[in-house]
Amino acid sequence: MMDLSLHKQLFPLLSLLLILFLSGQRMQAEANNSLQNPQLCEPTKKLFVFGDSYADTGNIRKSLSNSWKDPYGITFPGKPAGRFSDGRVLTDYIAKYLGVKTPVPYRFRKQMAQQLKYGMNFAVGGTGVFDTSTPGPNMTTQIQLLEQLIHDGLYTASDLTNSIALVSVAGNDYSHYLATHASPQGLPYFVASVVNQTTRNLMRIKALGVKKIIVGSLQPLGCLPQVTAFSSFQQCNASSNTLVAFHNNLLNQAVTNLNQSWSSSFAVLNLYDSFMSVLNHPTTHNIQNQLRPCCVGVNSKYSCGSVDENNVKMYRVCDDPKSAFFWDLVHPTQAGWHAVYNKLRTMNALQGIQF
Predict the structure, then answer these.
(1) Which pTM value belongs to this model?
(2) Residue 327: what are its φ and ψ, rounded to 5°?
(3) 20 to 30 Å CA-CA from 183: which of 53, 83, 86, 319?
(4) What 3-state DSSP class applies to 240?
(5) 99 by DSSP, 3-state: which?
(6) Which among 272, 273, 251, 151 is positioned nearest to 202, based on CA atoms?
(7) Res 261 pLDDT > 70
(8) 151 burial class (0-12, 13-18, 19+ CB within 10 angstroms)?
(9) Could you tell me which residues come within 8 angstroms of residue 213 by beta carbon, excluding any fewer than 6 positions away?
(10) What's the CA gap between 355 and 281, in Å, rounded?
(11) 339 — phi, psi (to 5°)?
(12) How many CB atoms lie within 10 A of CB 77?
């Protein structure tokens, strides 16, 4: 007859062995199920981002930009985080559409290593395809940063084949050109050079193995508050938008030619039409102020986020950022980007970025 005290000692051990056995059976079943259903273990889709302030989520240095100062970020994430808006920007909405988390900014890759599986954002506010007045990496250098990470083994060939690239070219090259050239006569030739360099950049990203590449068309620069301020924010500048149309026509032609060689690997994100649709029908998107910015300096010496030598704020913020399309003189609010995103969806303009 078994001693009762010995029985009491063996019972927990037997229970533990039974639990381990059943756990092993379940893990084996899950492994077999994964082998039979490869979609259960598909790698995470990745988003790689290149460009400027329309896509930057925190790469620009704090010493260079008001985007790290109040009141930027008041809507999301609730404090300044480097985004050129009161909240989310284009990158956040493209990531949302793809079903991934917003990729980590390159400068925070070591602090946010757990999010590298969603891709990486190399965009820096103020930069262009060429060098501009902003001392940040132009797009060629941004692509080199990804090349180095691939060389270092951070991303593999299989990572790249399951990735999408977003390329933002929002006009900093043109701002720099106009600021440094006395005559605008050479502008058409410069537009062609910007599109040609953009095309080379797209080809270089594709050569890394990225599955799909989307490049934003130029938004209506003539409708930005820094331009419409001359009409008291009443109307867009037609001459500026004519330049935009020329850029976008060349870009569309270039992408069409690329797709003939690379079987529809490239797509143009039609930001021009989506911006104009929202600006022409603002109340449809719950926008009340379509051209007047929400955050402005108290006078021409200051801008959104400026403070004086006594750290006294020298800007004004509108009562309801959700009712404004533009946040500052150049960038949309979160509500503005959300309206553009919804318009892109209804235009079926986002279907081309899936794979």
Answers:
(1) 0.88
(2) -85, -55
(3) 53
(4) helix
(5) coil
(6) 251
(7) yes
(8) exposed
(9) 164, 165, 167, 202, 205, 206, 265, 266, 267
(10) 32
(11) -65, -40
(12) 11
Dist CA 31 CA 52 (whole Å): 44
Distance CA 204, CA 222 (A): 31
Residue 198 · residue 258 · CB < 8 Å: no
Rg of the chain taking only CA atoms, in angstroms: 25
CATH superfamily of 42-280+333-353: SGNH hydrolase (3.40.50.1110)
Q: At what angle do helices 271-280 and 238-262 cross, to 10 degrees?
A: 140
Residues 6+ apart with CB under 8 A from 66: 72, 303, 304, 305, 306
The answer to whether the Cα torsion of 218, 222, 223, 225 is positive or negative is positive
Of 61, 201, 213, whose CA–CA distance to 144 is shortest? 201
**CA triplet 114, 118, 120: central angle to 5 degrees?**
90
Q: Which residues are catalytic?
A: 53, 328, 331
Quote the CA–CA distance of 62 and 209 in Å, as a whole number: 33
Contact between residue 214 and residue 352 where contact means Cβ atoms under 8 Å apart: yes
Classify the phi-psi angles of 223: left when phi > 0, otherwise alpha if psi is within -120 to 50, otherwise beta.
alpha
Reported in sequence order, the residue ranges of the chain that DSSP labels E, i.e. its strands, are 46-50, 104-105, 119-121, 163-167, 212-216, 266-269, 295-297, 315-317
pLDDT in tens, 226-238: 999 999 999 999 9
Q: Taking Cα atoms as reference points, which of 161, 93, 99, 91 lies closest to residue 121?
A: 91
The bridge status of strand 315-317 relative to strand 295-297 is: antiparallel
Q: Tokens 């009340």 label which residue?
A: 288
- Terminal C-alpha separation, the chain: 69
- pLDDT, one tens digit per residue, over 109-118 is 999 999 999 9
Residues 6+ apart with CB under 8 A from 144: none
